[in-house]
Amino acid sequence: MQDNTIHPSIKELKIDLERGKLSRREFLRYATLLGMSAVAASQLAGLGWPKKAFAQTIQRGGTLRVAAPVHKVTHPAQFSWISPSQQLRLVAEYLTYTDNNNVTHPHLLKNWEASEDLMTWTLNLRQGIKFNNDDEFIADDVVFTINQWLNEDVGSSLLGMVGSYLEPTGIEKVSDYQVKLHLTRPEIAVPEHLFHYPALILNHRTFEGDFIKAPHGTGPFTLDTYREGERSVFTRRSDYWNQGADGKPLPYLDSVEFLDMGTEMPPQIAAIQSGEIDTIDFGDVSATEAYAALKDDPNVNIFPATTNQTRILRMRVDMNPWNDNRVRTA
């Protein structure tokens, strides 16, 4: 959506914001979902937009060595948790991305438009993007990928969510760079759903069910090595489409290596202290033990990160000892 063709609902959101019925964070989320750029929505809400990092702080080159699970992966649409997607997203990408302020931005999309009734979504693709095998990224790739999500035989974890408002017959290729989604019911969160971890865009010409056998994505790295339970290696593309904060093509790194060291923390802690690895991707494992061991190490940097990830303890309140409120609140 162009900002001079504002979705009618944004005007209503602005009124709710002014009346205190909506927070500025909520306004930014909904306005961007309805197609307004993050900068324009921020200005409309009376907020400034964060400046990009200074170019002089950026260092290029080198290899990042990560202790992380190297999962068995075949079809990205079958991912049921974020951890298996962490490495493949170096190679393949999403149509959108949602930042840590819960604001959704275009990525492989140039922009999108929502109809007034939220029943039709027009996805406008960026042009000139290439897969790492030199195939052009076009609407056929988007149509193919979304159909994979909706195919019951694939068993995608996106089926229950996206399939609740979209059927295969509702996916329309308008041109090589535009796709329309005709929904079965109104849905405002479509752009957010396009950033779910199984939603990596596939090359419709080469993907046959196993991404490792045909690792063709639009992302900044190519897959060199992938050995389940052992090691994976990703190498920088020289022709990646996106640019960094210094105005030069991404990525900043020359390569990324993942070493599967299992789920026990002591070997990973020892590896980072010895310089064998640079960082730890904890995956599904709690970082409490590692934090306690590394927080006072002068050679290790620990960075806080904003996340909505939570760990939940569910209790059977009809059984001992959880039926005692003192236990539940202890």
Automatic annotation (TrEMBL):
Solute-binding protein family domain span:
105-330
GO MF terms listed in the record are:
peptide transmembrane transporter activity
Q: Which UniProt keywords apply?
A: Signal
The answer to whether UniProt assigns keyword Signal to this entry is: yes
The Gene Ontology biological process terms listed for this entry are: peptide transport
Please, which domain of life does this record's source organism belong to? Bacteria
Query: Record keywords: tRNA-binding included?
Result: no
UniProt protein name: ABC transporter substrate-binding protein
